[in-house]
Amino acid sequence: MIVGGRIPDHAQRKPDAPAIVCDDQVVTWGAFEAAIRHAVNALEAHAPGGRMVALLLGNTPQFLAYFLACARSGRTGAVVDPTWPQAMIADVLAGLAPDLICDPTFAAGAAALRACAAQPVSPTPETPFYVGFTSGSTGRPKGYRRNHRSWVASFEGDAREFGLGENDIVLAPGSMSHSLFLYAAVHALHIGATVIISRTFRPDRALQLGSAWRATAAYGAPTQWKMLTEQGGPALPDVRWAFSSGAKWFASAGAALAQLAPNAGFVEFYGASELSFIAVRKPGEGCPEAAVGRAFDGVALAIRRPDGSLCAACEPGRIFVKSEYLFSGYVLGGPAPEEIDGAMTVGDVGFIDDGGFLHLVGRQNRMIVTSGKNVYPEEIEAVLQGFSGVRAASVFGAPDARRGERIVAVILLEDGARTSRRDLSAHLRARLPLAFVPRIIVRMTEWRWTASGKTDHGAVCALWESGATERLE
Known about the structure:
473 residues, alpha/beta, Rossmann fold, Luciferase, domain 3, 9-stranded mixed sheet, 13 helices
């Protein structure tokens, strides 16, 4: 089975049923299958035998048709975000050297092709079909490759975890350049469900569409969920699963989420671009508040010391992941992740408690060394975000001749919220060792986010270094 391999059957069984809703556009299964076939013809006509196609079509049904045409024709679709700065797009395209660049100009010209039967193709489960990019917003994003087997296996694990099927209506209103929303849309189409997308993310429009079409599942990054809850509710009464990935929920979000989707089970994923699903936090499973969840279906976790030996329960170490969902290597930037016994790590540090739940301590590449102690910013950020009125936090190290590094914290407050450095420091000292309490705490009024809705720590740090932050009294 290949990604999207069931779509011809869905089109034959229910040609007039809706496959894709995009704002005010509805694409039926019959029309979508015809669009995929036409896209295959266009790829064959313009890049015979081509291996990689750069897709710059944004959030449209046409993008999904070309993405799945790449998968069907044995090509690799590299999903390039057209909203990136032009210099970044040019740099990424130069590094990829694709056989074809499929942008709106190409797609408009290809629309004039005479319809004909698609050429026979035979991708295998091991054939690469997708290149995605990490969410870095400075420098060149890393490009990672996936094959059909990894996503089809993910679909099967997803089915065992959540049981979504062709009667579901899936709301996926974020950018298709974000793997969470691309996965949500393609998974829905693969299983025959209707997917709702938007050309640009607008919380009011997303809720209007989700309500009108009675969405039964919904995806969002935490920042997007927050914007959705601020629109008021209940707007999604039919949603039974609400999925979030990319960062932990905001501490105060629970009641607002329950009001927005009163019948939903709220699910958090912990994963990585290279490793896909790692852990899942589901309601009713007794997961501690501090944990990111238990191993996702089909995932084996191991925590290892620097010498490669296994850690004891509750002992922190590097997280190694073994599953069928792992990526197939980088195509742009990045050294190969370390592997032991078929399990892979990207350097995240955590531990597994006595109940089998995974706790994320931090990411190795963000570790701060201060006065000889290893400090993971994520631990401090989590405590800061647990303080009433703090919407987001970014912690990093600054050079210090005496300590090696001193800890700096930058926060974003909720609209109308007020706090003081003294109150924040007291909150931190009550919950963290003294060495972990930042010596500098400042605020920003305009936060910096990545395309995937995470805090852009590099950009926040650069703004602090430039003096574009405000002191707390």
